[in-house]
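Hey all, quick one. A colleague (J.T.) asked me to put the S-adenosylmethionine job into the tracker so the inputs and the C-alpha coordinates live in one place instead of scattered across chat threads. No bug as far as I know, just bookkeeping. Sequence used:
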Amino acid sequence: MFDINNQDFTRLVSFVKENYGINLINKRQLITGRLSPVLSGMGYTNFTDYVDHILNNSEKEDIDLLLNRLTTNYTFFMREVNHFEYFMDTVLPWLEKTKKDKTLSIWSAGCSSGQEPYTLSMLMKEYFGSAFSNWDTRILATDISLQALSLAQKAVYSGESLESMPKDFKSKYFTKTSTPNQYQVVSEIRENVLFRTFNLMEPIQFKRRFDVIFCRNVMIYFDQTTKDNLCKRFFNATNQGGYLFIGHSENITSQNLPYEHVMPSTYRKP
Ligand SMILES: C[S@@+](CC[C@H](N)C(=O)[O-])C[C@H]1O[C@@H](n2cnc3c(N)ncnc32)[C@H](O)[C@@H]1O
Protein backbone atom coordinates (compact mmCIF):
# COMPACT_ATOMS: atom_id res chain seq x y z
CA MET A 1 0.00 0.00 0.00
CA PHE A 2 1.25 3.52 -0.81
CA ASP A 3 1.49 6.29 1.80
CA ILE A 4 0.01 9.69 1.05
CA ASN A 5 1.62 12.84 2.45
CA ASN A 6 -0.44 15.64 3.97
CA GLN A 7 -0.17 17.90 0.95
CA ASP A 8 -1.34 15.27 -1.55
CA PHE A 9 -4.06 14.15 0.83
CA THR A 10 -5.37 17.72 1.11
CA ARG A 11 -5.18 18.26 -2.66
CA LEU A 12 -7.10 15.08 -3.39
CA VAL A 13 -9.69 15.58 -0.65
CA SER A 14 -10.36 19.15 -1.85
CA PHE A 15 -10.70 18.03 -5.46
CA VAL A 16 -13.24 15.33 -4.59
CA LYS A 17 -15.19 17.59 -2.24
CA GLU A 18 -15.35 20.56 -4.61
CA ASN A 19 -16.35 18.52 -7.64
CA TYR A 20 -18.44 15.69 -6.20
CA GLY A 21 -19.47 16.87 -2.73
CA ILE A 22 -17.98 13.84 -0.99
CA ASN A 23 -16.02 14.87 2.09
CA LEU A 24 -13.20 12.41 2.78
CA ILE A 25 -11.28 14.53 5.28
CA ASN A 26 -11.45 11.77 7.93
CA LYS A 27 -10.94 8.93 5.45
CA ARG A 28 -7.20 8.79 4.95
CA GLN A 29 -7.09 5.02 5.25
CA LEU A 30 -9.99 4.57 2.87
CA ILE A 31 -8.17 6.71 0.32
CA THR A 32 -4.87 4.86 0.54
CA GLY A 33 -6.56 1.44 0.80
CA ARG A 34 -8.89 1.90 -2.15
CA LEU A 35 -6.58 3.89 -4.41
CA SER A 36 -3.27 2.03 -3.97
CA PRO A 37 -4.32 -0.73 -6.42
CA VAL A 38 -5.38 2.01 -8.88
CA LEU A 39 -1.92 3.62 -8.64
CA SER A 40 -0.22 0.27 -9.22
CA GLY A 41 -2.51 -0.53 -12.13
CA MET A 42 -1.69 2.80 -13.78
CA GLY A 43 2.03 2.38 -13.20
CA TYR A 44 2.42 5.12 -10.58
CA THR A 45 4.86 4.62 -7.72
CA ASN A 46 3.64 7.46 -5.49
CA PHE A 47 0.54 9.52 -4.75
CA THR A 48 2.14 12.85 -5.76
CA ASP A 49 2.33 11.85 -9.43
CA TYR A 50 -1.13 10.30 -9.36
CA VAL A 51 -2.72 13.37 -7.73
CA ASP A 52 -0.90 15.63 -10.24
CA HIS A 53 -2.38 13.55 -13.05
CA ILE A 54 -5.91 13.65 -11.63
CA LEU A 55 -5.79 17.39 -10.95
CA ASN A 56 -4.11 18.43 -14.18
CA ASN A 57 -5.22 16.07 -16.88
CA SER A 58 -8.62 14.90 -15.66
CA GLU A 59 -9.06 12.22 -18.31
CA LYS A 60 -12.62 11.05 -17.99
CA GLU A 61 -11.86 7.39 -17.59
CA ASP A 62 -9.32 8.07 -14.83
CA ILE A 63 -11.83 10.21 -12.98
CA ASP A 64 -14.45 7.48 -13.43
CA LEU A 65 -12.11 4.94 -11.90
CA LEU A 66 -11.38 7.29 -9.00
CA LEU A 67 -15.11 7.74 -8.38
CA ASN A 68 -15.80 4.01 -8.65
CA ARG A 69 -13.22 3.50 -5.92
CA LEU A 70 -14.09 6.37 -3.61
CA THR A 71 -17.89 6.15 -3.57
CA THR A 72 -19.62 3.94 -1.05
CA ASN A 73 -22.33 2.04 -2.89
CA TYR A 74 -23.84 -0.02 -0.07
CA THR A 75 -27.59 -0.48 -0.59
CA PHE A 76 -30.30 -3.13 -0.39
CA PHE A 77 -33.89 -3.81 -1.43
CA MET A 78 -36.58 -2.20 0.75
CA ARG A 79 -34.00 -0.16 2.65
CA GLU A 80 -35.71 2.10 5.22
CA VAL A 81 -38.98 0.36 4.55
CA ASN A 82 -41.24 2.97 6.17
CA HIS A 83 -40.46 5.32 3.27
CA PHE A 84 -41.83 2.73 0.88
CA GLU A 85 -44.91 2.20 3.04
CA TYR A 86 -45.53 5.94 3.01
CA PHE A 87 -44.94 5.99 -0.74
CA MET A 88 -47.60 3.28 -1.20
CA ASP A 89 -50.12 4.52 1.36
CA THR A 90 -49.91 8.29 0.89
CA VAL A 91 -47.81 9.41 -2.07
CA LEU A 92 -49.17 7.12 -4.80
CA PRO A 93 -52.86 7.71 -3.87
CA TRP A 94 -52.18 11.48 -4.04
CA LEU A 95 -50.47 11.14 -7.42
CA GLU A 96 -53.21 8.89 -8.76
CA LYS A 97 -55.80 11.48 -7.78
CA THR A 98 -53.98 14.58 -8.99
CA LYS A 99 -52.01 13.51 -12.07
CA LYS A 100 -54.62 13.85 -14.78
CA ASP A 101 -52.11 13.18 -17.53
CA LYS A 102 -51.14 9.88 -15.83
CA THR A 103 -47.48 10.87 -15.92
CA LEU A 104 -45.44 10.50 -12.76
CA SER A 105 -42.01 11.98 -12.32
CA ILE A 106 -39.86 10.12 -9.84
CA TRP A 107 -36.12 10.40 -9.30
CA SER A 108 -33.82 8.07 -7.42
CA ALA A 109 -30.78 10.33 -6.98
CA GLY A 110 -27.74 8.31 -5.92
CA CYS A 111 -29.34 5.01 -6.93
CA SER A 112 -26.17 2.92 -6.62
CA SER A 113 -26.67 -0.63 -7.95
CA GLY A 114 -30.39 -0.18 -8.55
CA GLN A 115 -32.16 -1.73 -5.56
CA GLU A 116 -33.92 1.54 -4.65
CA PRO A 117 -35.40 2.39 -8.08
CA TYR A 118 -36.33 -1.25 -8.72
CA THR A 119 -38.09 -1.40 -5.35
CA LEU A 120 -40.04 1.72 -6.37
CA SER A 121 -40.83 0.25 -9.75
CA MET A 122 -42.17 -2.98 -8.19
CA LEU A 123 -44.25 -1.03 -5.69
CA MET A 124 -45.82 1.03 -8.45
CA LYS A 125 -46.68 -2.17 -10.30
CA GLU A 126 -48.25 -3.49 -7.07
CA TYR A 127 -50.20 -0.28 -6.60
CA PHE A 128 -51.51 0.23 -10.13
CA GLY A 129 -51.95 -3.47 -10.91
CA SER A 130 -53.49 -3.99 -14.34
CA ALA A 131 -53.60 -0.19 -14.86
CA PHE A 132 -49.78 -0.01 -14.58
CA SER A 133 -49.33 0.20 -18.34
CA ASN A 134 -51.81 3.11 -18.58
CA TRP A 135 -49.48 5.23 -16.46
CA ASP A 136 -46.10 6.68 -17.31
CA THR A 137 -44.32 5.52 -14.18
CA ARG A 138 -40.74 5.72 -15.46
CA ILE A 139 -38.20 6.39 -12.77
CA LEU A 140 -35.06 8.39 -13.43
CA ALA A 141 -32.18 6.74 -11.55
CA THR A 142 -28.81 8.50 -11.42
CA ASP A 143 -25.40 8.05 -9.85
CA ILE A 144 -21.79 9.14 -10.39
CA SER A 145 -20.36 5.66 -10.07
CA LEU A 146 -20.32 3.99 -13.50
CA GLN A 147 -19.53 0.69 -11.82
CA ALA A 148 -22.67 0.92 -9.67
CA LEU A 149 -24.75 1.97 -12.70
CA SER A 150 -23.45 -0.95 -14.71
CA LEU A 151 -24.55 -3.37 -11.97
CA ALA A 152 -27.90 -1.59 -11.82
CA GLN A 153 -28.43 -2.05 -15.53
CA LYS A 154 -27.61 -5.75 -15.34
CA ALA A 155 -30.22 -6.03 -12.57
CA VAL A 156 -28.90 -9.36 -11.33
CA TYR A 157 -28.94 -9.99 -7.58
CA SER A 158 -28.22 -12.87 -5.23
CA GLY A 159 -30.97 -14.95 -3.64
CA GLU A 160 -30.03 -13.63 -0.17
CA SER A 161 -30.41 -10.02 -1.26
CA LEU A 162 -34.07 -10.64 -2.14
CA GLU A 163 -34.94 -11.79 1.37
CA SER A 164 -35.75 -8.26 2.56
CA MET A 165 -38.64 -8.10 0.07
CA PRO A 166 -42.19 -9.41 0.51
CA LYS A 167 -42.15 -13.17 -0.17
CA ASP A 168 -44.11 -13.17 -3.42
CA PHE A 169 -41.90 -10.47 -5.00
CA LYS A 170 -39.22 -13.04 -5.83
CA SER A 171 -41.57 -15.07 -7.98
CA LYS A 172 -43.39 -12.05 -9.42
CA TYR A 173 -40.51 -9.75 -10.23
CA PHE A 174 -37.39 -11.88 -10.70
CA THR A 175 -36.33 -14.71 -12.97
CA LYS A 176 -33.57 -17.21 -12.27
CA THR A 177 -30.45 -16.75 -14.36
CA SER A 178 -28.23 -19.58 -15.58
CA THR A 179 -25.84 -18.83 -12.67
CA PRO A 180 -26.88 -20.55 -9.43
CA ASN A 181 -28.47 -18.29 -6.84
CA GLN A 182 -28.59 -15.27 -9.21
CA TYR A 183 -31.88 -13.60 -10.11
CA GLN A 184 -32.64 -10.92 -12.67
CA VAL A 185 -35.35 -8.30 -12.34
CA VAL A 186 -38.07 -8.95 -14.96
CA SER A 187 -38.08 -6.73 -18.03
CA GLU A 188 -41.33 -4.92 -17.23
CA ILE A 189 -39.81 -3.60 -14.01
CA ARG A 190 -36.37 -3.03 -15.55
CA GLU A 191 -37.69 -1.07 -18.50
CA ASN A 192 -39.50 1.23 -16.13
CA VAL A 193 -36.18 2.57 -14.81
CA LEU A 194 -34.00 4.92 -16.83
CA PHE A 195 -30.39 4.94 -15.61
CA ARG A 196 -28.16 7.94 -16.22
CA THR A 197 -24.84 9.30 -14.96
CA PHE A 198 -25.43 12.50 -13.04
CA ASN A 199 -23.26 14.40 -10.57
CA LEU A 200 -25.47 15.94 -7.89
CA MET A 201 -23.12 18.91 -7.67
CA GLU A 202 -24.24 19.98 -11.16
CA PRO A 203 -27.27 22.21 -11.83
CA ILE A 204 -30.48 20.17 -12.04
CA GLN A 205 -31.76 20.72 -15.55
CA PHE A 206 -34.09 17.90 -16.48
CA LYS A 207 -37.04 18.36 -18.81
CA ARG A 208 -39.65 17.98 -16.10
CA ARG A 209 -39.94 18.77 -12.45
CA PHE A 210 -40.24 15.86 -10.06
CA ASP A 211 -43.18 14.66 -7.99
CA VAL A 212 -40.94 12.58 -5.76
CA ILE A 213 -37.19 12.61 -5.15
CA PHE A 214 -35.45 9.87 -3.23
CA CYS A 215 -31.94 10.95 -2.27
CA ARG A 216 -31.17 8.63 0.58
CA ASN A 217 -27.82 7.85 2.16
CA VAL A 218 -26.03 10.03 -0.36
CA MET A 219 -25.70 13.29 1.54
CA ILE A 220 -24.12 11.56 4.58
CA TYR A 221 -20.84 12.14 2.80
CA PHE A 222 -21.56 15.84 2.12
CA ASP A 223 -20.93 18.76 4.48
CA GLN A 224 -23.82 20.95 5.70
CA THR A 225 -23.40 23.70 3.09
CA THR A 226 -23.25 21.19 0.23
CA LYS A 227 -26.36 19.45 1.61
CA ASP A 228 -28.28 22.69 2.01
CA ASN A 229 -27.40 23.83 -1.52
CA LEU A 230 -28.42 20.49 -2.99
CA CYS A 231 -31.72 20.53 -1.09
CA LYS A 232 -32.43 24.02 -2.47
CA ARG A 233 -31.86 22.66 -5.98
CA PHE A 234 -34.12 19.67 -5.18
CA PHE A 235 -36.79 22.06 -3.93
CA ASN A 236 -36.69 24.12 -7.13
CA ALA A 237 -36.85 20.95 -9.23
CA THR A 238 -39.95 19.64 -7.40
CA ASN A 239 -43.60 20.10 -8.33
CA GLN A 240 -45.93 21.67 -5.77
CA GLY A 241 -46.96 19.02 -3.26
CA GLY A 242 -43.98 16.86 -4.25
CA TYR A 243 -41.87 14.90 -1.79
CA LEU A 244 -38.21 14.56 -0.85
CA PHE A 245 -37.05 11.43 0.98
CA ILE A 246 -33.58 11.47 2.55
CA GLY A 247 -31.79 8.78 4.58
CA HIS A 248 -32.87 8.10 8.18
CA SER A 249 -29.51 9.17 9.56
CA GLU A 250 -29.48 12.41 7.56
CA ASN A 251 -30.90 15.81 8.30
CA ILE A 252 -31.40 19.02 6.42
CA THR A 253 -31.74 22.45 7.94
CA SER A 254 -35.03 23.58 6.51
CA GLN A 255 -34.62 27.13 7.94
CA ASN A 256 -34.29 28.72 4.53
CA LEU A 257 -36.24 26.02 2.74
CA PRO A 258 -40.01 26.11 2.77
CA TYR A 259 -40.23 22.28 2.86
CA GLU A 260 -42.84 20.90 5.24
CA HIS A 261 -41.46 18.15 7.47
CA VAL A 262 -44.03 15.34 7.17
CA MET A 263 -42.28 12.55 9.03
CA PRO A 264 -38.68 11.62 9.88
CA SER A 265 -36.48 12.16 6.83
CA THR A 266 -39.48 13.02 4.63
CA TYR A 267 -40.26 16.50 3.33
CA ARG A 268 -42.99 18.01 1.17
CA LYS A 269 -43.06 21.10 -0.98
CA PRO A 270 -46.22 22.98 0.07
C1 LIG B 1 -24.80 4.50 -0.07
S1 LIG B 1 -25.35 4.67 -1.72
C2 LIG B 1 -27.09 4.94 -1.46
C3 LIG B 1 -27.96 4.10 -2.37
C4 LIG B 1 -29.45 4.20 -2.11
N1 LIG B 1 -29.94 5.55 -2.34
C5 LIG B 1 -29.79 3.74 -0.72
O1 LIG B 1 -30.25 4.54 0.10
O2 LIG B 1 -29.61 2.57 -0.43
C6 LIG B 1 -24.78 6.33 -2.10
C7 LIG B 1 -24.63 6.58 -3.59
O3 LIG B 1 -24.48 7.97 -3.83
C8 LIG B 1 -23.63 8.14 -4.93
N2 LIG B 1 -23.09 9.51 -4.93
C9 LIG B 1 -22.19 10.06 -4.08
N3 LIG B 1 -21.91 11.31 -4.42
C10 LIG B 1 -22.63 11.58 -5.54
C11 LIG B 1 -22.74 12.72 -6.40
N4 LIG B 1 -22.05 13.86 -6.19
N5 LIG B 1 -23.58 12.63 -7.44
C12 LIG B 1 -24.28 11.50 -7.68
N6 LIG B 1 -24.22 10.39 -6.92
C13 LIG B 1 -23.39 10.44 -5.86
C14 LIG B 1 -22.58 7.06 -4.75
O4 LIG B 1 -21.91 6.74 -5.95
C15 LIG B 1 -23.41 5.91 -4.18
O5 LIG B 1 -23.77 4.99 -5.17
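Adding what we noticed when we looked at it: Strands lie at 106-109, 139-143, 156-158, 174-176, 182-185, 193-197, 210-215, 238-246, 260-263, 266-268. The pocket of S-adenosylmethionine is lined by residues 20-22, 71-75, 79, 110-112, 116, 143-145, 148, 199-201, 216-218, 247 (CB under 6 Å).
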